Amino acid sequence: MIRQKRRPIIKITILTDNNTYIDRYFLAEPGLSIFIEDGESKILFDCGYSDVFIKNATKLKIDLTTIDTLVLSHNHLDHTWGLTDYIRLLTEERLEGRSPATPKLVSCPDTFRHTTYPMIGTIGSLIPLERISTYFSPIISKEPVVLSENCIFLGEIPRETSFEPTPAIGRKEGETSDDSIPEDSAIVYKSEKGLVIITGCSHAGICNIVNYAKKVCEDDRIIDIIGGLHLHDCDSTQLEGTVHFIGALGLSSLHACHCTGLQAQVALSKVAPVNEVGSGLVLEYS
C-alpha cells in the first residue's frame, strides 16, 4: 500500500500577550511575541517589551537559541525592546562555549529607524540596523519574503480601505511629519483549508492586511486571524467597517489579542467566533 505523505502541522505558541489564562502560570505584559513551528522551520515573530517571552519559552521547553528566523512586525517598543534580551541570551550562549544559531532577521526597511514621542522619548527599536548583523543575517524588504514551506512575510502592506485611517504615532528621525508606521507587516500561513494571518499590531489596518495576504497567496479563504488588531481606540467608522469586513470572511476562529481592545472584541464576537488568547496558548493547523 502506498501511504500518502502527511502535510506538516504548523504549531503557533503565544509567548507574550497582554493576558494570561486562569490556572496557567505564565507571564504577561503589554506586548506580543509568537513562536511558529512550520515543519522543521522555527520562526520567532516579535520579541515583546522585555524578557517575558524568553521566560515563558523556557517554561514551555522552547529553545530560542535554535530558531531559523526572527521577524519583526514593526519598530514599536512593545514588539522590539525584548530584542535586547534576546541578544543577551545569544551572547551568554557564546560565553558558555556553545554555538547558538545565527537567525535570519526579516523586516521592512523602517523598522530600525529611531522613533520618538513627545514627552516620552524613544518608542521604537533601541538597536540600529548596522549592529544587527553581529547577531543576525538581516533580510530587509518591502516585498514579501518566503520564511518556510508554508509561511510568508508580507512586507509593506498597501493601504487601500477607506475606513482604516493611517495612524500617526511619534516621529522617525529625520522626518518632518508624524510616523505613519509604513513598515507594519504580518505573516501568513498557507494551510490546506485557507490562510491564517499572524499580525503584530495591524497599524496598516487588518482589512488591508487580509486583502494583501489574499493577493500574495492567491487564496481568498481566511480561516483564522491571530494577533493585535489595533482597534482599542478606533472611531465608530473604523470599528463598523472592520466588523462588517471580518464578518464576511466566514472565519473558523478569531484570536484577536494584544491591542485589539475589549469593545472591539465584543463587537467582533457578534460576527466571528472570538477565542480567548493569553501567554502560553498553543494552536495547531494542518
Radius of gyration: 18 Å
CATH hierarchy, class: Alpha Beta
State the helix count.
7
What is the N-to-C succession of helices and strands? EEEHEHHEEEHEEEEEEHEHEHE
- Based on helices, strands and strand pairing, what is the structural class? alpha/beta
Strand content: 15-25%
Share of helix among residues?
10-25%
**Termini gap:** 23 Å
Domain count: 1
For the largest beta-sheet, the strand count, sense and barrel status come to:
7 strands, mixed
**Strand count:** 16
Basic shape: globular
For the record, the CATH architecture stands as 4-Layer Sandwich
Please name the fourth-level CATH homologous superfamily.
Ribonuclease Z/Hydroxyacylglutathione hydrolase-like
Which residues sit in consecutive blocks of at least 5 with pLDDT less than 50? Answer: 1-5
CATH topology: Metallo-beta-lactamase, Chain A
Short description:
The protein has 286 residues and is of the alpha/beta class. The protein has helices at residues 52-59, 77-80, 83-95, 129-132, 206-217, 236-247, 262-268; strands at 10-16, 33-38, 41-45, 69-71, 104-107, 115-117, 121-122, 137-140, 145-146, 151-153, 171-172, 186-190, 195-199, 222-228, 255-257, 282-285. It is globular and about 55 Å long.
